[in-house]
């Protein structure tokens, strides 16, 4: 049986990349003590840099002041040892999107934390049930899928695995809401709600560009102004990371068949190392 929200004090985050650092940040902003773990100190340091940059943006628009920024940073400790998550009440895993990696982390986590700790994964497309099958206490595993950029995106998808208990799901909803997010729930089916619908949209945008339907700018403008989304498909793909889009699309393709086939140009860009904003070039170029 997992704890209730009232008993949650310390949050563990596995992975200090874009998503992990964002999750650590929003948990600390909500007042939780946070332990953020990655496999190398450099990754932990870079997670802290991402958090500082994001907090600076909140300071610059007066959402928080410098003292609050310092207090938030103070609540986060970094580590490379998974055993340092031992006293956590909720752990969110945001490591690589590789089933073997996630299963091995969950196996280690089950040994490291106590029996009442909620074990959540931020996976975007992998099966919660398969991840949970690596451990004995499958009932406390749920999907807690944050959206990028975590500090500003309001939505969090809660995913119910085959064995997830109602207590674990309740805590996942309550915890995400306590971080100021709004939740929705998805069954454990490939891509859940968000990526099942988003990835074909992005791939179709890429195919439309590749097949000469319009310029990339006009495709993005058409979707932004025509359907009132904040970013068109090519800009959004760059923002998410083309490698992440390709990996998610491949998982969906494998599970759901040809209607999810990744666009050829997406694969070519990833092969060329043009992964979007993070490498300075994707469909657009960035400083
Ligand atoms: N930290 C803190 N603040 C941030 C921030 C960050 N990381 N990123 C943006 N902001 C703030 C800005 O300071 C600004 O605040 P203001 O409105 O009070 O001035 C506001 O957010 C808007 O920022 P910008 O002006 O730089 O840019 P935009 O107006 O384009 O907004 C955006 C940025 C919120 C990212 C918006 O473009 C957007 O909503 N884009 C779509 C994002 C999206 O769809 N994400 C989901 C991707 S799918 C996913 O994550 C699932 C995964 O599994 C793949």
From TrEMBL:
<keyword id="KW-0560">Oxidoreductase</keyword>
<keyword id="KW-0520">NAD</keyword>
<feature type="site" description="Important for catalytic activity">
    <location>
        <position position="145"/>
    </location>
</feature>
<dbReference type="InterPro" id="IPR006176">
    <property type="entry name" value="3-OHacyl-CoA_DH_NAD-bd"/>
</dbReference>
<dbReference type="InterPro" id="IPR006108">
    <property type="entry name" value="3HC_DH_C"/>
</dbReference>
<feature type="binding site">
    <location>
        <position position="148"/>
    </location>
    <ligand>
        <name>NAD(+)</name>
    </ligand>
</feature>
<dbReference type="Pfam" id="PF02737">
    <property type="entry name" value="3HCDH_N"/>
</dbReference>
<feature type="binding site">
    <location>
        <position position="102"/>
    </location>
    <ligand>
        <name>NAD(+)</name>
    </ligand>
</feature>
<protein>
    <submittedName>
        <fullName>3-hydroxyacyl-CoA dehydrogenase family protein</fullName>
        <ecNumber>1.1.1.35</ecNumber>
    </submittedName>
</protein>
<feature type="binding site">
    <location>
        <position position="278"/>
    </location>
    <ligand>
        <name>NAD(+)</name>
    </ligand>
</feature>
<dbReference type="Pfam" id="PF00725">
    <property type="entry name" value="3HCDH"/>
</dbReference>
<dbReference type="GO" id="GO:0003857">
    <property type="term" value="F:(3S)-3-hydroxyacyl-CoA dehydrogenase (NAD+) activity"/>
</dbReference>
<feature type="domain" description="3-hydroxyacyl-CoA dehydrogenase NAD binding">
    <location>
        <begin position="11"/>
        <end position="183"/>
    </location>
</feature>
<feature type="binding site">
    <location>
        <position position="38"/>
    </location>
    <ligand>
        <name>NAD(+)</name>
    </ligand>
</feature>
<dbReference type="InterPro" id="IPR013328">
    <property type="entry name" value="6PGD_dom2"/>
</dbReference>
<dbReference type="InterPro" id="IPR022694">
    <property type="entry name" value="3-OHacyl-CoA_DH"/>
</dbReference>
<dbReference type="InterPro" id="IPR036291">
    <property type="entry name" value="NAD(P)-bd_dom_sf"/>
</dbReference>
<feature type="domain" description="3-hydroxyacyl-CoA dehydrogenase C-terminal">
    <location>
        <begin position="191"/>
        <end position="286"/>
    </location>
</feature>
<feature type="binding site">
    <location>
        <begin position="15"/>
        <end position="20"/>
    </location>
    <ligand>
        <name>NAD(+)</name>
    </ligand>
</feature>
<feature type="binding site">
    <location>
        <position position="97"/>
    </location>
    <ligand>
        <name>NAD(+)</name>
    </ligand>
</feature>
<dbReference type="GO" id="GO:0032787">
    <property type="term" value="P:monocarboxylic acid metabolic process"/>
</dbReference>
<dbReference type="InterPro" id="IPR008927">
    <property type="entry name" value="6-PGluconate_DH-like_C_sf"/>
</dbReference>
<feature type="binding site">
    <location>
        <position position="124"/>
    </location>
    <ligand>
        <name>NAD(+)</name>
    </ligand>
</feature>
């Amino acid at each position: 049986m997992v704890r209730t929200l009232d008993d949650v004090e310390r949050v563990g985050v596995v992975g200090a990349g874009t998503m992990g650092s964002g999750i650590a940040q929003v948990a600390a902003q909500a007042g939780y003590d946070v332990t953020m773990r990655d496999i190398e100190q450099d990754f932990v340091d870079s997670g802290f840099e991402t958090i500082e940059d994001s907090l600076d943006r909140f300071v610059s628009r007066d959402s928080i002041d410098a003292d609050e920024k310092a207090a938030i940073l103070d609540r986060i400790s970094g580590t490379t040892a998974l055993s340092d998550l031992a006293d956590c009440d909720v752990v969110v895993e945001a490591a690589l999107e590789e089933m073997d990696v996630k299963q091995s982390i969950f196996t280690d986590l089950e040994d490291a934390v106590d029996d009442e700790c909620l074990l959540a994964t931020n996976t975007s497309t992998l099966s919660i049930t398969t991840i949970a099958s690596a451990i004995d206490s499958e009932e406390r595993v749920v999907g807690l899928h944050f959206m990028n950029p975590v500090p500003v995106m309001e939505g969090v998808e809660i995913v119910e695995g085959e064995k997830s208990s109602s207590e674990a799901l309740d805590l996942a909803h309550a915890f995400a809401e306590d971080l100021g997010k709004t939740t929705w729930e998805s069954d454990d089916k490939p891509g859940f709600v968000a990526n099942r619908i988003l990835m074909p949209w992005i791939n179709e945008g890429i195919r439309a560009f590749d097949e000469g339907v319009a310029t990339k700018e006009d495709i993005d403008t058409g979707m932004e102004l025509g359907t009132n989304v904040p970013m068109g498909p090519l800009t959004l793909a760059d923002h998410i990371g083309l490698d992440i889009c390709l990996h998610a699309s491949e998982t969906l393709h494998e599970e759901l068949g040809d209607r999810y086939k990744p666009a050829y140009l997406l694969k070519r860009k990833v092969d060329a190392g043009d992964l979007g904003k993070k490498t300075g070039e994707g469909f657009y170029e960035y400083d």
